[in-house]
Specification:
Strand 17, helix 18 and strand 18 form a beta-alpha-beta unit. The chain is built from 20 helices and 18 strands. Bound molecules: CIS-heme D hydroxychlorin gamma-spirolactone 17R, 18S (HDE).
Length: 702
Amino acid sequence: MARQDNVQASGKGGELHQQVGDKRTPGGKAETISRLTTSQGIPVSDNQNQLKAGARGPVLLEDFVLREKIFHFDHERIPERIVHARGSAAHGYFELYESLSDLTSADLFQRAGEKTPLFTRFSTVAGGAGSVDTPRDVRGFAVKFYTKEGNWDLVGNNIPVFFIQDAIKFPDLIHSVKMEADRGFPQAASAHDTFWDFISLMPEATHMIMWAMSDRAIPRSLRTMEGFGIHTFRLVNAEGKVTLVKFHWKPKQGLASTSWDEAVKLAGADPDFQRRDLFEAISRGDHPEWELGIQAFDEELADSLPYDVLDPTKIIPEEIVPVRVIGRMVLDRNPDNFFAETEQVAYCPANIVPGIDFTNDPLLQGRLFSYLDTQLKRLGSPNFTQISINAPKCPMMNFQRDAQMQMQQFSGRANYEPNSLAEAGEEGGPRECPHTGFRSVAGRAARQEQGDKLRLRPESFADHYSQARLFFRSLDTAEQAHLASAVVFELSKVGLTHVRTRILANLVNVDGELARRVAQGLGMEVPDASPAAAPVQDLGTSPAVRIIGGPRERDSLKGGTFGVLVADGSPAGEVKAVLKAIKDKGGTPFIVSPKVGEVTFAGGSTMAADGQLAGSPSVLFDAVAIILSPEGCKMLMGEGAAVQFAMDAFAHCKAIAVNEGARPLLEKAGVMPDEAVVPPEKFGSVAGRRHWAREPKVRMLA
Ligand code: HDE
């Protein structure tokens, strides 16, 4: 006999409780269960079995419940973003510290203390939507402010410059970095022939390459990286006065990166590491914050600089134009639905509000076209602006009508303007507002720089090496070694030797010592410098670009996660001491044990573990503690994952708290004593940062 297995409402096979208005559950408790329907609202009686002609017979075409469900499923994916496909996002708000009315009439910058809702998406650039979170890559940092005068999108990156000066090179750049065209690999990696081939022929990319090979491109967390608007924009006040501006996001969590070996291991241990980190921090109420800063300057200052502020391969060092902090962004709510919000959000640098304006930066100008175009491809209809994550939170009315997926139902005849329908008592619709509406600045950049039609870069964009030199020479020695080693690593994956030589020739222009170190790491000769389009200048240094030893390096347990490795028999007092040290400083402890259930400490007290040892390697944590009994230690010395736990924590320059019982494990792992290998009670004073001074003991760097 055929059986009808309907477990969905009853929890038991065979018995169907779910009916219209049914308020019974299997236990007989009164509770409203909403009714499962098709998308047409037709109640579904069975969501487990297709309609068949007999129990072992063929499926019937008339099964509209089946067909509708499968049809919808077949179309669930939309095209992923061609760049920045892999992303994680959160809701929050921007709070203004002080009125900026002297600089801009932008509504969100008028009233101190006012909050503007926003939605922020972080991303990697090269990998597909399902790629890992920790490749060496630039990170996108896109913020949609829902202001009272429309949406303003500040679509930036975590690096303040870009690879190219002209939008026409963008498709080439992206083709070169993505999977190679014939073989479809490597995914989410720049360490391959085509990327470096392109870069070697593109001297303007040299400055960005310095940043991309630095620790900036392997951030520890999305919460520990800066954001930059990159291009120079303009602020316009109520009197029409124009101020040039660059935007910065400074993380209150401080800046922190991983080591390369750690980033690679993280990719295996938890491909979603950064997405999880952001989601879990917000879920536990540890809301990440960034301060919004501006570098505001005038044309006179711009003219005095030895580089062009319209060139997106250049920074203005903070030491020359300080960053003025004007407010903060707090991310305090995770999306309810990844697809509806994170996937469907459509950023566009052309979304700008009265009081802010573009400049003639040729990269920005190209972007103004690209994003709207890509949104149509991805979201399928010009009505994507009606999707709630994209819709403005202020009144929106115009005469745009119809098109696919139109959600609004308009009334009346006014679908054109001007009209005089109001004179006949009909609804006439909205009208333009010459005084308060968005007006493009007719400033110098718009007027005087117009000329003949040319495909030409300005002379002022010709210096491709001086700022690359400034960046490299500004770094801490540990960061310089990381950068040189990253270039060695990447070029070692490049099979085309002439490409390696060409990169080395470019590096000679940046810094002779850097070129020598990279050449030595590759086992190659240093070639002659490549011809430079403009003489390379010494522009001094900018300590603000450092992470290690820089003004914003992270040194706090707050917001971090700390692994505490224990086993049955671990001394409860020492475990408690280390947990207290972590919690007192605002960190989150994570108990790691050989078994994920309860750990029984010496004395009999128990505690649930947060993770099992094999699935919780030390790369997941900002620092670790290892608290074991002598017996527990003996047992774990025979477990590779435990030895690796200590070995990696040491090699990644993390603080390690250790009790007496666990010392033999550390010895087996090759951990050497230093100022960051401490007893449990001292953990709080060393666990907030990395201890890079240890690195030469564990790694040969270029
Ligand atoms: Fe983008 N970029 N980009 N880009 N970009 C996109 O738009 C493009 C550039 C950036 O989280 C795309 O909606 C061109 C610079 C971020 O959804 C696309 C050029 C900077 C995001 C596009 C650039 C960025 C994008 C793909 C050279 C830093 C992700 C999907 C002229 C200031 C936003 C989409 C999100 C996304 C084009 C250069 C940042 C194809 C043509 C410079 C953060 O339109």
